[in-house]
Amino acid sequence: GTETKTLADGTAIPVLGLGVWQVRDGRDCEDAVRWALEAGYRHIDTAQAYGNEGSVGRAVRDSGLARDEVYVTTKFNPSRRDPVAELERSLERLGLDAVDLYLVHWPAGGPTWAWKGMQRAHELGLARSIGVSNFSADDMAAVLAGADVAPVVNQVQFSPFEFRRGLQEVCASRGVALEAYSPLGTGRHLDDPQIAGIAQRLGRSPAQVLIRWSLQRGLIVLPKSTHRERIAQNADVFDFTLADEDLAVLDGLDRTGGTDSALERPWW
Ligand code: A2P
Q1: How many CB atoms lie within 10 A of CB 93?
Q2: Which of 78, 148, 204, 252 is the most buried (most CB within 10 A)?
């Protein structure tokens, strides 16, 4: 799980990370992050709105790994006003001097108003890289048009069933890397018969097939689990590849019609 990709600002990001959305603060979250780091993950994705930054920070600090060996992302809760003040609070909860990546969690109140504050957080060295999440192609264009420091990442829900080709093309053309959250469809895609069929033939799990698809489609992928063996299994995806025929079958599961929207149904 230590393969990396270079972002547009020149920094390296591990292509596989642990997502901790809906992981309860405290023991559940600390265990998940600790197990992930033990299994070789070097990238943890949290957010102010998840309420578990304290646990993430504790597990990262207790791991004994050097700070620069673990990539930590958090996200600005845009129902608040000031990205710098909120990041300072996040860093206090995390017990870290800076995050590797700071994202606007969703385009609340429009896609652009928070960006100045995000740039300031970057300038102050509190965030090595800055980006956005849940932004559509139009939202991306609006931010990029007024940015001095461009977002290097857009994190959206992405899987064969939510294959946002339009958004992917726009992001690629502007040097914005896409990150996939809920790459397993929050678990719903694991029962799909076509995915199960491919998994069975390859002697892999459906989760591994979905994670591999995200990687081979160029995404940074953030599966979530709180079970130790699943956390390990989800990172054990660098010793096989999906053939073009299997990728094509998975591509065909898309239900977005190639839309460029970031989400089917905004959840905020
Ligand atoms: P759990 O956390 O109980 O292990 P997503 O990453 O798309 O949000 O999906 C997360 C969901 O998928 C969670 O409910 C998680 O359950 C489940 N999950 C994650 N990895 C696996 C796996 N390898 N096998 C089965 N279920 C998994």
Answers
A1: 19
A2: 78
Confidence of residue 265 (pLDDT cuts 50, 70, 90): very low
| CA atoms of 214 and 179, how far apart (whole Å) | 9
Ligand 1 centroid–CA 22 distance in Å is 11
| Ligand 1 atom nearest 224 alpha carbon | 6
Task: Give the closest residue to 79 by CA, choosing from 124, 103, 114.
Answer: 114
For the cut 50, the answer to whether the pLDDT of residue 268 exceeds it is no
The helix (run of H) or strand (run of E) holding residue 72 is strand 71-76
pTM strictly above 0.90: yes
Q: Answer yes or no: are the C-beta atoms of 231 and 35 closer than 8 Å.
A: yes
CATH class of domain segment(s) 4-251: alpha beta
**250 CA → ligand 1 middle, Å:** 19
pLDDT single digits (tens) 182-207: 999 999 999 999 999 999 999 999 99
The domain ranges of the chain are 4-251
